[in-house]
Design brief:
This protein is α+β, with helices and mostly antiparallel strands. 31% of the residues lie in helices and 28% in strands. The chain starts with a strand and ends in a 12-residue tail after the last helix.
Length: 187
């Protein structure tokens, strides 16, 4: 990973650049790309700027595995550009659990419950992500409790939305039999 800065240009979209060594960056550009992330939407400009300083930019080529199921997770990721697939092993084959595009995030489970990745994440086309390690992310939220509360509330909202979506899929798959008729004989 390399340390870059992100600004948002209204005409060209997100623009990445490498700042000169030992320089101070004054972020005067809009934070539109970060505001598109549901969990960061409620942060004010100062909170967003302080959090942004912790991120690094990561680039993945199409078909790169960004995260492998079963490995220790140490970072929180936000998709800036591109699409990633979330896949999990089931009966010796990978099952597609979901897709995330710009503004999507992953790595939130192990932020609160350290352990291994519950799924693998693959870039489906060239993808740019911003990444923050858990230690720095937790330290930021502890040092900035109001911002931390907003972030954790946003993560909980998104987690609840994802759980509802998963529940609906489970009910739908349990209701319908493999032949396309309701399971249990269709009575």
């Amino acid at each position: 990973m390399r340390r870059l800065c992100l600004i948002f240009n209204r005409r060209r979209g997100p623009v990445y650049y490498r700042p000169p060594p030992n320089s101070f960056i004054i972020m005067t550009a809009e934070y539109d790309i970060l505001r598109a992330v549901s969990i960061l939407r409620d942060l004010d400009d100062a909170e967003l700027g302080a959090l942004y300083s912790l991120f690094s930019v990561m680039e993945a080529k199409a078909k790169d595995r960004i995260l492998e199921e079963g490995t220790v997770v140490k970072n929180f990721y936000i998709v800036c550009d591109g699409i990633v697939h979330i896949r999990r092993m089931a009966s010796k084959r990978e099952m597609l659990l979901g897709r995330l595009g710009p503004g999507g995030f992953f790595g939130e489970i192990n932020l609160f419950d350290p352990g291994t990745a519950t799924a693998s994440i693959y870039a489906m086309k060239p993808t740019q992500l911003i990444v923050v390690d858990y230690e720095n992310f937790r330290a930021y939220m502890q040092a900035n409790p109001a911002a931390g509360y907003k972030i954790v509330s946003g993560i909980m909202r998104e987690t609840a939305r994802r759980l509802r979506q998963t529940n609906a899929r489970l009910v739908s798959s349990a209701y319908w039999g493999t032949d396309g008729t309701p399971a249990g004989g269709g009575n």
